[in-house]
Amino acid sequence: MLLYVEEEDFLKKKKELIPQPRSAFIRVKCPSCGDEQIVFSHPATQVKCHICGEALVEPTGGKGRFNCEILEVLG
Description:
This protein is of the alpha+beta class. About 15% of the residues lie in helices and about 30% in strands. Strand 4 and strand 5 form a beta hairpin. The longest helix is centred in the N-terminal third of the chain and has 10 residues, at about 5-15.
């Protein structure tokens, strides 16, 4: 019977207990007008372009469906 936890196993478990976010902010480019804006990766509502109004990201109940070019993931 094991009465102690080895230090290596303890540290491994401790690292797993800290949750990391699965979402991020993303810089995208509109395919119609070329405008760039920052959107959330898991949107609750449809995200439209500020200039032309085209739908850039549609919600899917999780990660959004991107209808545009992804330029950069910010964090």
